[in-house]
Design goal:
The complex is a heterodimer of chains A (about 170) and B (about 850).
Chain A (H helix, E strand, L loop, with lengths): L5 E5 L5 H11 L7 H5 L11 E8 L2 E11 L10 E9 L8 H15 L4 E7 L3 H9 L3 E11 L6 E9 L2
Parallel strand pairs in A: 4-5
Antiparallel strand pairs in A: 1-2, 2-3, 3-4, 5-7, 6-7
Chain B lengths: L20 H15 L3 H12 L5 H14 L2 H14 L7 H13 L3 H13 L6 H13 L2 H14 L4 H13 L3 H15 L8 H19 L3 H14 L6 H15 L2 H14 L4 H11 L5 H14 L5 H4 L8 H18 L4 H11 L4 H14 L7 H17 L3 H14 L4 H13 L3 H12 L6 H13 L3 H8 L12 H6 L3 H31 L6 H39 L3 H8 L2 H12 L5 H30 L14 H14 L13 H4 L4 H16 L7 H11 L2 H14 L5 H13 L8 H14 L15 H8 L5 H10 L4 H11 L5 H10 L2
Helix pairs in contact in B: 1-2, 1-3, 2-3, 3-4, 3-5, 5-6, 6-7, 7-8, 8-9, 9-10, 9-30, 10-11, 11-12, 12-13, 13-14, 14-15, 18-20, 20-21, 21-22, 21-23, 22-23, 23-24, 24-25, 25-26, 25-28, 28-29, 28-32, 29-32, 32-35, 32-36, 36-37, 37-38, 37-39, 38-39, 38-40, 38-41, 41-42
The chains are: A alpha+beta (about 170), B mainly alpha (about 850).
InterPro entries (chain B): NatA_aux_su (IPR021183), TPR-like_helical_dom_sf (IPR011990), TPR_rpt (IPR019734)
Keywords (chain B): Repeat, TPR repeat
GO cellular component, one term (chain B): NatA complex
């Protein structure tokens, strides 16, 4: 039986640490607040909806995505739709189409929840990533968001990229 | 244990002694109530009867009723009264039977046997007693008596297969093999054609068991062996254990010298299970090619083609091929496909070659895998890349090249930081370099990746304990335990007999104790020299804190070691049920295996580990009390006599908190949470003997004994003749020239000095023995106070033998400073983790 080399699976409370590890290793400069991961499994019944997945390369967890559903508009920076908060793949496992799978997954969730917009914020410096989104049909909108992302080296500017789904 | 009182159904054999007819009737009624578990009513009735005076019968019954109501102290009281009223075993059969039952439930098996037997002797016709007796005899290991009882019971109830099986087993154990075979055959005849589907498993076990006995009885006699073989053919269709059957067949062929036939059977076995290495080895033997590498190679090449998916035929040539070029090629063919697939156990698969062929295999493997790794691109072939790094890290760890090992595991981790295995290995490497805290933190990092992984949870706990971080360890362990009302899982870990945890915790506590002791000594020394009165109070509290730590950790260590001993007692006791259960289920082979296991129970690694740990503490207690005596004899000022310590309120409170965290048993049953009572023993050696040593000593064979422990124990009890025994056994089993032998012998010589304390005769015996077996020692210098024995040992034995040096350290016979120096020299060749352990906890 031919098996796909890359598979996606849910994130569970028990392997949340793996997602955290991946995100931190891939983005060593970003300071993640503890709540960034814990909010996926809230202790109280919060109403926020998240879509998180991990990608397994030959059963090894190598990439993760976390996105949040914004059912209502929340300012210009957070329009109604699904916001990809982070998408990270370990460097050595890039080029296996993992990000495509993630995007497909988010688009599916977006449709399931009757949304039409997927968007994300990418630091201006990450040209490669921005290009990838653009290749996948995302468009940048508006001016650069000043000091949008906090890193250990100080805040950096980001660009809002979005894509409409019918 | 289930409560079995089957025996009481039979008719009472005689009148209750010393009671009128009327009273006897009443007693029987009470007995009935007891059998119906209506203990309250039974007790009420007994009370009315006893107003007119009590008999042993009534007291015994009363005791039993109390016992089953859960009132164990009262029960013991009444039983004691009952026994006191009986002269010898002159009591009614019922009374004896009741006492037997009571003693069995309280696990006083020899007494129980006595009373059951008395019940029969005093006229009981209750045949069930024989079954109980047989069980108890088996439990205490008196198989001769068990056979008698089994026979009696079998005579009374021939209608059950279990009784025939038990009889045969008892005969077999007593060496009456032919009788055992006859017994089994007889039943087979009786049962022929009458067995239903449900009984066929039992039947199969009994058939092959009979063959076992026949095989054992046959020895090397060819005619008898042929007979066994015929029997094997006869029963083949009805035996389910095909492996056992074929293995038996092959070994008979081997014994008969029919090697060709044997080889065919081994080939059949390989076909059934091509992964069992044992069969390949035996096939070599049966083909007569064990010594011929060329033929062996040809054989395995063929087999490898025949079983292409199988490891064993590929692996076996690695154990004997001599030519390095060829071996290197074969290693590559064996290892690289596994690395390519990403098999985590690749290194474990060939690890055995690292010890057996240390001079060839590791260097070749290193070449092969290093080359392979250099060809793997981390992005293109991530799987082979990481697993090759992982493999090489293990390889270098095995070769004790820690630096290189660490570099490789770091490469793997940098590449894929999400593999739990890598963290474990990194922890392991750090552990070997002596960085215990870092090791624990590394494994903890891995644990956080996957919280439901029980394996890494246990690993983390163990690493924390090795780093003496007990609280952290308990917290992590408690994630997987049933905690109910307790604050952590310590209690549950005791309940589930998690000996790995408890022994590690014990050892951690002991290490903490040693460290605290050192700190205390330093602090006391500082306090003694300090002249300022400033801050006196806070110093005083610090000292008290330290004193408490010293005592607490030592007590807890001992308490935990005792817990292990308790588990093993429980294991031993657990056998009780199987003396009858196995017979009913028809599993005599498994039963005999269990008996063998039981005979070696107290020599199992975990038990001996706990024993050795406890020995350190008990020996220490003994030595301390000796020193106290000496100093008390010398001057009666009794500085050592502790000032009654007043506990401050805050300390008391903290102790209460701590109590909850270390509680090992249900709070209501626990009277010695910190093991203080264990430490307070007046006779540490006797306590050690009772809890650990006696059971070990009875089971451990000479070839495997810890003679050093024997020596140290007997030395302290003053039994020098037994020391001599341990010494000569050690020199026989191990090496007469080893430094341990030398050190032990010298210790014994010094113990026989005129000025040494101890029994004269014992000294003489030891001296005599030394003169005959160790005449090379300068025995004439014995009473020469200025003779330098330590130099003598250094000059004549290997002075860097760490075991010998530590032995001398424990015996405390020589100048400490010089010994330290020697130990420091000796540990240089050890790996860092051992060095640290010795430095911190031995010196």
């Amino acid at each position: 039986m031919a098996r796909d080399l890359v598979n996606l699976d849910n994130v569970y409370a028990n392997n949340l640490g793996t997602l955290e590890k991946i995100c931190k290793v891939v983005n060593p400069s970003i300071e993640f607040p503890a709540s960034f991961f814990e909010e996926l499994f809230p202790k109280d019944t919060k109403k926020d909806t998240y879509f998180a997945q991990m990608a397994y390369f030959s059963e090894i967890p190598v990439a993760g995505i976390k996105s949040k559903l914004y059912p209502k508009r929340k300012g210009d920076n957070y329009p109604k739709g699904v916001c990809i908060e982070i998408m990270a793949t370990l460097e050595n496992y890039e080029g296996h189409g993992i990000n495509d799978k993630f995007l497909e997954y988010v688009a599916d969730e977006c449709k399931k929840h009757h949304q039409h917009l997927v968007y994300t914020h990418i630091p201006l410096t990450e040209e490669k990533t921005i290009q990838w989104y653009k290749d996948n049909g995302f468009e940048s909108e508006g001016d650069a968001l000043k000091d949008f992302i906090k890193t250990v080296d100080g805040p950096v500017d980001a660009v809002l990229l979005k894509k409409h789904y019918e | 244990m289930s409560r079995r009182r089957g025996g009481m159904k039979g008719k009472p054999a005689g009148k209750a002694a010393g009671a009128g007819k009327d009273q006897h009737g009443q007693f029987l009624e009470a007995l009935k109530l007891y059998e119906g578990k209506q203990y309250k009513k039974a007790l009420k009735m007994l009370d009315t009867m006893m107003k007119k005076g009590s008999t042993p019968d009534m007291l015994a019954l009363k005791g039993l009723c109390f016992y089953y109501q859960g009132d164990k102290t009262d029960a013991a009281g009444y039983i004691k009264q009952s026994v006191a009223k009986i002269e010898g075993t002159k009591a009614s059969a019922i009374c004896c039977h009741l006492l037997g039952i009571y003693m069995r439930t309280t696990k006083e098996y020899p007494d129980s046997i006595k009373w059951f037997q008395a019940s029969l002797d005093n006229g009981s016709t209750n045949k069930q007693i024989y079954r109980d007796l047989a069980t108890l005899h088996s439990q205490v290991g008196d198989f001769k008596a068990a056979l008698v009882a089994r026979k009696k019971y079998w005579e009374a109830f021939m209608g059950y297969r279990a009784n025939w099986t038990s009889l045969a087993v008892a005969q077999d154990i007593n060496g009456e093999r032919q009788q055992a075979v006859n017994t089994l055959s007889q039943f087979e005849k009786l049962a022929e054609g009458k067995l239903g589907e449900a009984e066929m498993y039992e039947n199969n076990e009994c058939l092959i068991y009979k063959n076992d006995i026949m095989y054992k009885a046959a020895g090397d006699n060819p005619d008898k062996l042929k007979n066994v073989l015929h029997h094997l053919d006869d029963i083949e269709a009805n035996v389910y254990d095909k492996f056992g059957l074929l293995e038996r067949k092959a070994s008979i062929y081997m014994k008969l010298g029919q090697l060709k036939d044997a080889s065919i059977v081994y080939r059949t076995l390989i076909k059934r299970n091509p992964d069992n290495f044992k069969y390949y080895k035996l096939l070599e033997v049966s083909l007569g090619i064990s010594g011929n590498n060329k033929l062996k190679k040809a054989l395995y090449e063929k087999l490898a083609k025949f079983y292409p998916r199988c490891e064993a035929p590929k692996f076996m040539p690695l154990t004997f091929v001599q030519d390095e070029t060829e071996l290197s090629k074969l290693l590559g063919e064996y290892l690289l496909p596994q690395l390519k697939r990403g098999v985590p156990a690749t290194f474990s698969n060939i690890k055995v070659l690292y010890s057996k062929r240390r001079h060839v295999v590791p260097k070749l493997v290193e070449q092969v895998v290093t080359k392979y790794l250099s060809e793997q691109d981390p992005k293109e072939q991530p799987i082979p890349y990481i697993w090759s790094c992982y493999f090489l890290a293990q390889h270098f760890l095995n070769l004790r090249q820690y630096q290189t090992a660490q570099e490789h595991i770091d490469r793997a981790l940098a590449h894929t930081p999400t593999m739990v295995e890598f963290y474990i290995l990194k922890g392991r490497i750090l552990k070997h370099t002596g960085q215990l805290e870092q090791a624990a933190e590394t494994v903890e990092e891995g644990r956080k990746l996957d919280l439901q992984d029980r394996f890494i949870n246990c690993k983390t706990v163990k690493y924390y304990l090795r780093a003496n971080m007990v609280d952290k360890a308990v917290d992590v362990a408690s994630l997987f335990t049933k905690n109910d009302e307790s604050v952590n899982g310590v209690k549950d870990l005791h309940l589930v007999e998690a000996s790995w945890f408890i022994v590690e915790q014990a050892e951690a506590y002991h290490r903490l104790h040693v460290s605290a002791q050192k700190k205390l000594a330093d602090a006391q020394a500082a306090a003694a020299t300090a002249t300022t009165t400033e801050g006196e109070d806070s110093k005083e509290t610090d000292l008290r804190e330290l004193e408490w730590s010293v005592e607490k950790y030592e007590g807890l260590a001992l308490k935990r070691f005792h817990a292990i001993s308790k588990f093993y007692n429980q294991f031993e006791d657990d056998q009780l049920d199987f003396h009858s259960y196995c017979m009913r289920k028809g599993t005599p082979r498994a039963y005999l295996e269990m008996l063998e296991w039981g005979k070696r129970l107290y020599t199992k690694p975990m038990y001996t580990r706990a024993m050795n740990g406890a020995a350190r503490i008990y020996f220490n207690l003994h030595d301390r009390s000796l020193k106290r005596h000496q100093s008390a004899d010398g001057e009666a000022d009794g500085d050592v006599a502790k000032k009654p310590r007043k506990e401050t309120a805050s300390m008391k409170k903290r102790k209460g908190e701590e109590k909850k965290r270390v509680l090992a048993y249900p709070a209501e049953e626990e009277t010695d949470v910190f093991g203080e009572k264990l430490l307070a023993t007046k006779e540490p050696l006797a306590a050690f003997n009772d809890a650990f040593y006696a059971k070990y000593s009875a089971q451990a064979p000479d070839s495997e004994r810890n003679h050093i422990l024997d020596f140290e124990y007997q030395y302290r009890t003053g039994k020098l003749a037994l020391c001599l025994g341990a010494l000569s056994k050690y020199s026989k089993v191990h090496d007469a020239k080893s430094a341990v032998t030398g050190a032990m012998a010298v210790a014994l010589v010094l113990a026989t000095k005129e000025s040494a304390p101890g029994d004269k005769i014992a000294k003489m015996v030891a001296t005599k023995g030394l003169e005959t077996d160790f005449s090379q020692l300068p025995l004439s210098e014995r009473d020469n106070e200025s003779f330098d024995w330590l130099s003598y040992i250094c000059d004549n034995y290997n002075a860097t033998d760490l075991r010998a040096l530590l032995f001398m350290q424990h015996m405390d016979l020589f100048d400490a400073a010089r010994l330290h120096e020697l130990i420091m020299k000796a540990i240089q060749q050890e790996e860092p983790v051992t060095q640290n352990a010795v430095l911190q906890y031995e010196l």
